[in-house]
Write a structure and sequence with these properties.
Helices cover 52% and strands 11% of the residues. It is α/β, with parallel strands linked by helices. Helix 4 links the parallel strand 4 (93-97) and strand 5. 31% of the residues are buried.
């Protein structure tokens, strides 16, 4: 099977920041879905197999969502979902099927699918699921970008500043932090000011929220964050 791109150019009213990937081995279904989506102003790209989509997506992980047939020759929809989840290449999935069953639906939804639509697909249901999937993708990417920004700021802290950060978000006062670190309260205030500046926090609640993104809290070590989530 080969990569199929049936829409060479986006429609005039397309939203180019996100793409709807249609993955189905039935040419008629791909054509019908892409025509409907394009008429609604979406940019689409279609594939005739899960394998070809996966190869393309691994190289070019673009924003958007996937309309994915459940049953296809070779790699089926659920197996593609498993591979995407295992690789961390997250993208919202909407399953489409002509003969779905309850176990498959439950499995797909538990693994994070946005929806499970049966053919013939109602236009309203399809567009509603697509809008939800795209919003979920926007939120995920926004959260990931925020985590990366906070992590970059955290990497600029000195080891002592990281200790101070952990103790501040743990609720300790300057006097208590000074006692815990064997430093003067004046020195702690200086470190605390630098932490606030480097972490771009205007208040302690801001600092706490940033620390939470890094996995740093009252009961965690000050050695460092576990890393931003995907």
């Amino acid at each position: 099977m080969s990569y199929v791109n049936e829409m060479d150019a986006p429609p005039d009213n397309a939203r180019p920041d996100q793409t709807i990937f249609v993955v189905d081995d039935d040419p008629a279904v791909r054509k019908s879905l892409t025509r409907l989506l394009r008429s609604a102003g979406y940019h689409t790209s279609s594939f005739d197999s899960a394998e070809t989509f996966l190869r393309c997506w691994a190289e070019h992980a673009m924003p958007g969502c996937v309309l994915l047939d459940l049953s296809m020759p070779g790699l089926d929809g659920l197996e593609l979902q498993q591979r995407l989840n295992a690789s961390g290449l997250a993208i919202p999935l909407i399953f489409i099927t002509g003969h779905g069953d309850i176990p498959s639906t439950v499995s797909a939804m538990k693994a994070g699918a946005v929806d499970f639509l049966s053919k013939p697909i109602r236009e309203e249901a399809l567009l509603g699921a697509v809008n939800e999937a795209l919003e979920r993708d926007r939120r995920r990417r926004r959260t990931r970008a925020e985590h990366k920004a906070v992590d970059r700021s955290y990497q600029t802290l000195t080891p002592r500043e990281r200790e101070v950060l952990a103790l501040v978000v743990g609720g300790l006062l300057n006097k208590q932090i000074a006692a815990a670190l064997g430093a003067s309260e004046k020195t702690v205030k200086i470190h605390r000011g630098r932490v606030m500046e480097k972490m771009k926090a205007r208040s302690v609640p801001d600092l706490v929220r940033a620390a939470q993104k890094l996995g740093i809290g009252p009961d965690t070590s000050s050695e460092g964050p576990a890393g931003p989530s995907r």
